[in-house]
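Async update (no meeting this week)

Hi team, since we skipped the sync, here's where things stand on the single-chain job. The sequence we agreed to prioritize is pasted below, unchanged from the tracker. I ran it this morning and attached the output directly underneath so nobody has to dig for it. Comments welcome in thread, and please keep replies under the output.
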Amino acid sequence: MINLQIKTNSEIPASSQLFNQIRFAIASGKFPPGHRLPSTRQLAMQTGLHRNTISKVYHQLEDNGLVEAQAGSGIYVKSEGNEERSKFNSPISKKYPDASKIVESSLNELLSQGHSLNEAREMFLTEIDWRLRCSTRVLVTAPSYDMGIGKLMAQELEQALNISIQLVPLEELNKILNPISSGTIVTNRYFIGQAEEIAASTSVRVIPIDIYDYDQEFELLNALPKGSFCGLVSLSSGLLRAAEVIIYSWCGDNIIVMTAQNTETNKIDAMVRTARIIVCDKFSSDIVQYALQKNREDIIRPPQIISIKNYIVTDSINLLKRELGLV
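Output:
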């Protein structure tokens, strides 16, 4: 159970605190697709917020394409469909003994609806052909104001999948998609609603990725003495802003957060001289280590440097490999 907390003495509006915490829980897979969010009454008791405020946050999450309301049931994390379809991607072989049963069941369903074997065969071949064509062009998208997060996703995917990735700002995605007949768009769940809306009128598919949950790092921060400095370094300005809000929501004034993009060398120099812990993405690790060496004579107690190996979780990498035909 995620412990959603609201700091009443924070400058950040309570609704923004709640929205960011839930959005992070969805983006990191803590609230997986299909997960039922607490009722407004339950969340009001937990956070102390008015139920109207919680309802507005839920509407905001729905407007962003992250959740969907089911009449008489509640609010659920939206399922994009790829998670449900991924189980059909395994080839028929001895290694996957259930594959033939899945194909057989699907074929029987088509036949029961009145389709002929030839029509069913055409449907299967069309779907397979479309997926293969989508796999030949992979795009990563993020808003233009935070292309750092796009670079982080694109570089990780290129290393993990060993394929060429095209990075496209969300604002230019429609223009890029218009002339192409197929492709695969990858983004995290922060931007999935916008990406799906743009791609809806095209033959391009959208696959969401889940991000690392930072549980171990948050435990380390909670164990720090009050008033300790924590440094955050990343390619992404948006990731830094989100992390700062989340840390403040959970730790309050106990931790003083310093942030810097990996190009802001002066800030990083100040950070290595002050912080107890510095958390960075793997593409910023060498820069932080260099700053540590450069300022070694001015440092009384070197900070603990934690390099996050993966922004994208392994399950999402494996899903993409299957969807792109790389396994």
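Quick observations from my side:
The longest helix spans residues 117-135.
Confidence is low (pLDDT under 50) at residues 82-93.
Reply here if anything looks off.
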